[in-house]
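Q: What would this chain look like folded?
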Amino acid sequence: MDLNISTLAERPALEGPMWGMRDLWPEFMMYDPVGWANMGQIVRRFPEYVLVATDPGGKVVARGFSVPFRLDLDGRRELPDRGWDEVLLWAFSDLKHGREADTVSAIEITVDTEFLGRGVSHRMLAALRENAGRLGFSELVAPVRPNHKHLEAGSSLHEYAFRTRASDGLPHDPWLRAHVRAGGVIEAVAPASMTVAGSVGQWRKWTGLPFDTDGPVEVPGALVPVHCEASRGYAVYVEPNVWVRHRIG
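A: My prediction, written as structure tokens:
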């Protein structure tokens, strides 16, 4: 598929259409407080790290977000267990304190539902790698959300992340497989990469499920069960992700 991929810094007029894409993200994921507070700021503070893809007619078909941060710093030096949330907080903390970044983290790749299944996400991953290299970085890391893990929410991500196919030794999960084919190396599991907490009323609204008993609740699109404390009126989802490291150059 013919795509024109550029940074938002190069084509700022695409911001509105970029946010207007149709996507398959579960509604509850919009309520992670770290993402809620910071995703919109990425386009303001790091537009050169935001990629937008358009088709030959100029329609926005995909977006890719990344952020620069400093990994070689006391208290860091290892990719964090709190994955997606932590790396966003590090990026904006480093910006605030004037620290020079040494690493780029992918944050999101979203493809318009009309264009799924055409290899667009693979192109966007390659473009994020290329953009990080163009900006002078030697590696891109990614807290990856395996796209088939929700089909077996009860299984451990620590096993699932390293599960491979007998035919070629590549990862069982399609999105992890795409990262490895692009040159990435699966490094570790981030067991608490994103946290969404809400009242049982909110969870009912987000999911259409009753959330009326204590214990684990399997929710469509969730990688692991949501922990429900119905008797106390709240539920919490702690999503694990998989850290993948891409060397550049």
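The CA atoms of residues 28 and 206 lie 6 Å apart.
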